[in-house]
Design a protein that fits this description.
single chain; 346 residues; mainly alpha; ABC transporter involved in vitamin B12 uptake, BtuC; 0% strand; globular
Length: 346
Amino acid sequence: MNSSPVSDDKQLKLHIPKNFTLVLMSCLVLLVMCVIASLVLGARHVGWNELIDGLFHPEVDSYGANVVRKRISRTVFSLMCGGALGVSGALMQAVTRNPIADPSILGVNTGASLFVVCGIAFLNISSANQYIWLALAGAAITAVFVFGIGSMGRGGATPIKLVLAGAAISAALSSLVTAIMIPRSYVMDQFRFWQVGSVGAGTWSGITTFIPFLLVGMLIAFITAPALNALALGDDVATGLGVRTGTLRLIAALAGVLLCGAVTALAGPIGFIGLLSTHVIRLILGSDLRFLIPMSAVTGAIILTISDVGGRLIGSPGELEVGVVTAFVGAPILILLAMKSKVRSL
């Protein structure tokens, strides 16, 4: 029997969906449109000439061109965060076999938030490099805790038990966050802006910090995709195909936590992107993770960037943080999915 956690591709042949090319091209066109919208729309709209100057004419020092240049890092950061959250959602759903699993629903974001607020309150941290390690530790510990509680009792880790465990732990951790912040006004002032979830503070320094975590998480996701397809058939079938299910779940879950934790550290807890992006692609292309994972990355980038632009337009002349926009859109969709699927496993 194969000792690798990744199953043999010959056992799970690659069948390209008939509409894959059309969906891919449509998503890429949407992605380009989102990038343009992110660069030109906001509290100060810019024209096409200013956009061209800002992108290709560094010698031009007009106000509009400088606005475009300032928005480039924000747009790149938004695309990276959305892609990471999309892939994280796909991995969480595959590992838990839960169609409504998402880092925010399973309490991973809240665990990262607790560790960050503890770092601010007790360790006086203030930089992204410090946030990221605490957020990753909090996300990982919470994920293990949720899965452990959800696995107790008869039937093991069923979808409904995981969701309930995630909701309960998230509520408990949120209470701890509040308890730590209330007597410390300086912590509340620093934490409340981060807690909303925003890509507005995206800088080239933050992007550079994020890139290694993004590359490692994405690489693991792509490598484990064939074996995760086997896992969807059930543990017994996957084991018969040579998949070490325990090792696979651990590796894939770590990749999901790595992606989600890094985003949470740098942008704050942004929910529902993994849920929305993965469901959109699954409805169109099916459940083959070799297509679902990369396309969830593209769709997640589109959804988060659209949400960021929408928040700027709705809140003009200020802006509405993207975490608020995604929660406003994602919450009713989650309720609808739960009602239709009745929390069935994948």
